[in-house]
Design brief:
Length: 126
């Protein structure tokens, strides 16, 4: 689930409705998108990697990326036109998700990167 509304997307009572194994990410701040405060009363948290945390309770679990903070700035914020590269990959990922042909799991949009880079260079390398 990708939350990108800029306002509250998931309330505490919404999390138990997520599919088991769902990945939750946001491209705005966790304070804006996710109501995480009460989750620690219901879910045990287990770090899977530095950037992925599993929330688990009896019969239900999901993964939270980057502690609920924006994944588009996971490796440090870029200012200026470089952010358009990140936004283009987000759009490519959403396009791929909308096709509903992906198997469950982690996926990348590496095949879109040459087109994204060429388009970016065309506009910003003048």
């Amino acid at each position: 689930m990708l939350c990108a509304t800029g306002r509250l997307s998931l309330r505490g009572e919404d999390f138990p409705q997520l599919r088991n194994g769902a990945y939750v990410a946001t491209v705005t701040s966790s304070e804006d998108e996710l109501e995480l405060d009460g989750l620690t009363e219901v879910y045990d948290r287990t770090p899977i990697t530095d950037d992925i945390t599993r929330y688990m309770t009896t019969g239900h679990y999901f993964y939270l990326l980057n502690r609920g903070n924006a994944v588009n700035f996971l490796h440090g914020a870029s200012v200026g036109p470089f952010v358009f590269l990140v936004q283009a990959e987000i759009l490519a990922a959403v396009a791929r998700l909308s096709q509903r042909t992906l198997e469950p799991g982690m996926h990348e949009v590496a095949d879109y990167r040459p087109l994204i880079a060429a388009t970016w260079l065309n506009y910003f390398n003048r």
